[in-house]
Amino acid sequence: MSEQLKLSRAHHKRRTHAERTAETRGRIKDAVVEAISDLGFHRTTAAEISRRAGVSWGAAQHHFGDKDGILTAVLVDSFNQFAERLASISVEGRPLEARVASFVDAAWEHFGDPRYRCTLEILLNLPPPDWVSRELPLRDATLEAWSGIWDRFFGEAKLSPRNETAVQYYTVSVLSGLAAIKRFEGPVEERRGIELGFLKETLVRELGRGGG
Questions:
Q1: Rounded Cα distance, 116 and 98, in Å
Q2: Do 71 and 54 have their domain in common?
Q3: How does the average pLDDT of the chain come out, rounded?
Q4: How distant, in Å, are the alpha carbons of 7, 8, 14, 53, 135 from that of 2?
Q5: How many CB atoms lie within 10 A of CB 170?
Q6: Final residue in a domain of this structure, among 65, 85, 115
Q7: Which runs of consecutive H residues, i.e. helices, occur in the chain?
């Protein structure tokens, strides 16, 4: 029995400080997503986040600074997941219609997920003046990363800057709008496919005019 105990101890790997930190940060961010999904943005208090994460609010502040810091981290995670999803799709040599279809389908997997609806609530409820002033570098980095994703899929479409921006904002608006509506609906998969089909047709038409 003593030899077995020693063997178990020998194989037990202690977690590093970095691993423990990552786990704690992950629990706090997950707690925010769960709380907003269950209670809504305004009822997701510091106390509720702490309770769900199983940590003190002081510990949460140690990792993120304040509540806005946690919300920012959730937004960053959400966009990174979106970018990783799109990065896994091969676009080289594919016709415009196929690239549009892959882009919209993968984007909807992200936007249609309940976790994105939490992201949308954060974006809609953060105070605009403070958010812009405090998070301008994050906004700029996000826009730059989004442009890189878009260019990889549709860089051949030589739209004017004005039209390209309009098409990009239209795409995000449609996907975000469908995500918001989905929260209050029952199963509507057939109609959702039609709506996403309209988006695909619009993108093929507009990007095609630019030489995609």
A1: 25
A2: no
A3: 85
A4: 9, 10, 21, 37, 57
A5: 14
A6: 65
A7: 2-11, 17-39, 46-53, 57-64, 67-87, 96-111, 114-125, 128-134, 136-154, 161-182, 189-209
Q: Measured between alpha carbons, how far is 37 from 43 in angstroms, rounded to an integer?
A: 10
Instruction: Please report where in the chains the tokens 């984007």 appear, as a residue.
Output: 107
Whether residues 36 and 77 share a domain: the answer is no
φ and ψ at 155, to 5 degrees?
-65, -20
| Same domain flag for 194 and 132 | yes
Spatial CB neighbours of 126, under 8 Å, sequence gap ≥ 6: 68, 71
Query: What's the pLDDT score for residue 128?
Result: 62
d(CA 178, CA 195): 9
Amino acid at 167: V
Show the tokens assigned to 28.
């706090």
Residue bearing tokens 């929260």:
183
Q: Is the pTM of this model over 0.90?
A: no
Is 206 a residue whose pLDDT tops 90?
A: yes
Domain hosting residue 163, numbered range: 66-212
Please state the length of the chain: 212
